[in-house]
Amino acid sequence: MIDYIPTVYIILAGAAFLITYVAMQISLRRVVARLKQIDMPLWLAMGSPEPTYFTRFRDYATSRPINLDERPPTEYSELSMWLSQRGYKHLHDVGLTINADRYMFLRKVQFAICALAVCAFLYFQFVVHRVAT
After folding, report:
1. pLDDT digits over 52-81, tens only?
2. What is the mean pLDDT of residues 39-62?
3. How many helices and strands, by DSSP H and E, does the chain display?
4. Helices 5-38 and 94-122 sit at what angle, rounded to 10 degrees?
5. pTM
6. Sign of torsion, CA 114 117 123 126?
7. In whole angstroms, how far apart are CA 39 and each of 62, 75, 90, 96?
8. Is 50 exceeded by the pLDDT of residue 40?
9. Cys-Cys with 49: which of 18, 79, 102, 109 at CB 3.0–4.6 Å?
10. Cβ distance 62 to 77 under 8 Å?
11. How many angstroms separate the Cα of 87 from the Cα of each of 14, 25, 81, 113?
């Protein structure tokens, strides 16, 4: 019976990770759509980010050359940096704030799920396995 417990945990962790990932992407799409509606110049200055489901890090990050002499038109060159530094607070938009906060919360939940999955794996690999043998 001990052999089946890690499999169940892995399946549950995978399902939880997938659910939070989809919820994060929905929130991110709503943030980008609302940002386009209320502040198009800011959206353009960030490189016109458009999130897609299967390109997690390339979907909303823009790259700029390091030797660029002129400053970008905004202090935020990436949407992810703008979200993490809560740059959306000055826009005073409830929908944008709710979805951005939800996105940031789900990122933390997803990290916690991964940490718990690794801890459970290590526990069953090293502790339970030694007790059983």
Report:
1. 655 554 444 444 444 444 444 455 557 777
2. 66
3. 5, 0
4. 160
5. 0.74
6. negative
7. 18, 15, 11, 11
8. yes
9. 79
10. yes
11. 32, 19, 8, 27
Q: Tokens in use for 85?
A: 């530094």
Q: Is residue 102 classed exposed, middle or buried when 0-12, 13-18 and 19+ CB atoms within 10 A define those classes?
A: middle
Residue 10: the pLDDT is: 82
Quote the tokens at residue 107: 């990122």
Supply the Cα-derived Rg of the chain in whole angstroms: 20
Tell me which residue has tokens 């509606």.
37
Q: What angle do CA 95, 101, 102 make, to 5 degrees?
A: 90
Query: Which pair of structure tokens corresponds to residue 128?
Result: 């339970």
DSSP at 2: G
With CA atoms as reference, report the closest residue to 33 among 92, 79, 87, 75.
79
3-state class (DSSP) for residue 1: coil
CA 89 to chain centroid: 18
